[in-house]
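Appendix B, record 7
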Amino acid sequence: MSAVFVFLALLVAGAAIGFLGGLVGIGGGLLAIPFLVLALGLEQQAAQGTALIMVLPAVLLTLFNYHQHAPIPWRQAAAGASTSVVFTWVGAKIALGLDPILLQRIYAGFIFCLALYYFYQSRYAGQRRQLAQAASSPTVAADGLAADHSAVPSKQTASGYFMLVGMVSGTAGGIFAVGGSVIVVPLLTTLFGFSQFRAQALGLTMIVPGIVVAMLTYAAHGQVLFWSGLPLAIGSLLLVPFGVRVAYGLSEARLRFIFALTLLGITFLMYYSVH
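Structure tokens (predicted):
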């Protein structure tokens, strides 16, 4: 297989991953990891480290596009990022010390649990939307928030809570390399009342410093393949804005359902790769 063919294949794969990453607000990394394991035969740690090359620029571009639709609350994001950085390093050190197959199985279980959560959320949101419509309250969304994707909680939440969220997301992001935002989103929507769209934007903002720390930590242990990650990164940047644009036009319930389907697909891919 020629190097040119591999480069083009990775470019196309990166474009598809970038679109889905922009759509569900996870930067595409969770999709890139099973692809690298299955298509290139990388061990879990190497796949996670290599995926970070694609994740960082894709997340930054995704954030720029999200911010155009719904301004990001920078104070809350900074509070979460302050603890996320430290705990990302801790999580990365844990992951690098695990057996690759064990880490892969833990990764698959982690994603599966999140998929079940989002299937539940999408169904619950749909039921709440019907109740809201029956009550003739067009300004109320399915989950009790303002219908606008830019909606924020009515009450001010202390920065300390977002620091706790950063601790949890940082640990998950370090262990799974790119799992931090997937943890942040359900916490923000369930506990703090953010809309799905805005939670995805804030979650990505929190994890940016942690991504840099994780990439440097994995690279220091020789688990980053630059020439495999680069074409993925280039391809993902091409279609991220289109994924974000589609996400902004979807309802809360549908966006969550797509998120759950994406996570469930990742689970099956990871399960298949260890059997």
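Remarks on this record: Confidence is low (pLDDT under 50) at residues 132-156. Residues 3-273 form one domain.
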